[in-house]
Automatic annotation (TrEMBL):
Protein name: N-acetyltransferase
Top-rank taxon, per record: Bacteria
Species in which this protein is naturally found: Kosakonia cowanii JCM 10956 = DSM 18146
Length: 196
């Protein structure tokens, strides 16, 4: 399966795909409890992150536009969470304040050295297939290994944390609990040297 790096012309596709994929997510329901507003709130929320990711990381989408992986490349000269938190607090509703709080708390668990951060990996509805997930992840892992930095993420389920082990991720050595939200399962992958 082929994947590609998204561009700014893909923003609407990315926001639609992510809003659909995360509509019923347990973590998202905690932050956006009103179902009648959730889809549009999610589209706006993901737009903020997609615009930054396309400048300071990337979004990888599959050839059929059914899956997306959004990541950030954190280093001393790259993005700061404070910019994102300010946008979330200043531009939107109380729901965004809840998400800004969560994102701020999660950022405290990130590695302190340069790293890639998987913000979201999504395949909506019945399209959830390991071939799409693997294709998206292999592209990111290739980029991570080229950059020579660790890759960090939080999983919303222990089974996802275990599946990530097949791709070289290991459970982080700490528990991740933010008041008012379900427990998350952090993972970390060290860069690998390419076999020649």
């Amino acid at each position: 399966m082929n994947v590609r790096d998204a561009t700014f012309s893909d923003i609407e596709l990315i926001c639609d795909l992510l809003a659909e994929a995360f509509y019923d997510d347990v973590l998202i329901e905690s932050a956006f409890p009103a179902p009648e507003r959730r889809r549009e709130a999610l589209r706006s929320f993901f737009r903020i992150y997609a615009e930054v990711a396309l400048r300071k990381g990337g979004v990888i989408i599959d050839e059929n536009n059914v899956g997306a992986l959004m990541y950030f490349h954190y280093d001393s000269e790259n993005i700061t969470d404070e910019i994102l938190f300010k946008q979330l607090r200043d531009e939107y509703s109380a729901d965004y304040a809840t998400m800004a709080y969560l994102m701020h708390k999660l950022s405290a668990y990130h590695p302190t050295t340069p790293h890639f951060y998987i913000f979201v990996l999504a395949i909506p509805g019945q399209d959830r297939g390991m071939d799409v997930i693997n294709a998206l992840m292999y592209r990111l892992i290739h980029l991570q290994d080229q950059a020579g930095v660790p890759c960090y993420a939080e999983c919303t389920a222990a089974r996802v944390q275990r599946l990530a082990g097949r791709l070289g991720f290991k459970p982080a050595d700490f528990k991740l609990c933010v008041d008012g939200f379900p427990e998350l399962y952090p993972i970390l992958r060290e860069p690998q040297k390419a076999l020649i």
